[in-house]
Every structure is written in C-alpha cells, then in structure tokens.
C-alpha cells in the first residue's frame, strides 16, 4: 500500500484549485471574444476549456507525485474532464463540458447509494482515517451526501440550461465549492456526536 506523504497545505490547495481558478480567469478575459485557431473559430469558453484540460492533468499528476495518493473523486474528475472537455473542444460545443458536473455527481450518488445497499460504506473506507466516526454516523452522512450529489446534479442542469455561460462559470467556480464547504460545516454536529477517538488519543 502506498504511503500518503504530507505536503505544504498551500501547495496542495494551489494544485487542487489552481486549474479551476485559471479556467475562470481565462474565461472572464475571453468570454466576449472569438478566437481563430487552425482556421476554426472558438468561443472564449472553449478556449478556457482547452487551457483547463492540460493544466488539470499536470496538477493532478503533480499532486499524485508529491503525495503518493489520489482520492477517487480526483481520479474520476480528471477522467471526465479529459473526456467531456475534450469532446467540447473537438466538437466546438460547450454543452459537453457543462454536463460534466452533472454526470460526476450522479456517479457518486449512485456509488454511495449502492454501497449503502451492499452494507459496505465506501465513504467510510475513503474518509475514516481523516474523520473517525462510528458506523451509524457514516450511514447518516452517506445518505445526506447522496441527497447532496443528486441536488447538485439537478442544480447544475438548471443553471447551464437556463442561464448564461458567465452564470454557469461563476456557479462552477464559486457556487459548487461553497455548497460543499457549507454542507460539511452544517454536518459538524454529526461529526461531534458520532466521533471516535483517533489513534494515540
């Protein structure tokens, strides 16, 4: 089993969120422009996606190299970004990249729901080292996360289908991370109630 190595938390945050921030910056600078590349016209959104894909690949590989480990969500995100972002660039159609959050949230809702049915909590397997809790706490948190992911999938579909590209980029860059942070803050009482002492405490 590969040992997880500790790295500077600021470096870790930069590698995890840097590509998304870069996507936001490039899009905001080019959103009203059309660029011609190899004889084909591309919107600012497509160009931002084209920049985002290799930067995310490089940052994810750097994170893996430095820490020796990647979370399942990081791997799934990378694969879906390459596939759906690549389709958007190749077909010059932004809708594929906009659908990516919907698909990844549905995948994780399905996996967590399936783990509950199988009575083998995958969320606990992934996060128990960082967040020790009793089994009942993990069951409750998993149910809530299934509902969260379903809600985020629906929200993403509503935003990209009914609002402007700028609204969707703002939602993806700031809204989705803020919702995730708020979710874990809102569940702080659950963590306290079902907490288990860490090793050595």
TrEMBL record:
Main location: membrane
Membrane topology classification: Multi-pass membrane protein
Residue ranges of the TM segments: 12-30, 42-64, 71-91, 97-117, 138-155, 167-186
Compartmental location: Cell inner membrane
Transmembrane helix is among the record's keywords: yes
Gene Ontology CC terms: plasma membrane
UniProt keyword list: Cell inner membrane, Cell membrane, Membrane, Transmembrane, Transmembrane helix
Entries under InterPro entries matching the protein: YciB
Entries under HAMAP family matching the protein: YciB (MF_00189)
Sequence similarity: Belongs to the YciB family.
Function: Plays a role in cell envelope biogenesis, maintenance of cell envelope integrity and membrane homeostasis.
UniProt-recorded name of the protein: Inner membrane-spanning protein YciB
Species of origin: Paracoccus lutimaris
Primary gene name: yciB
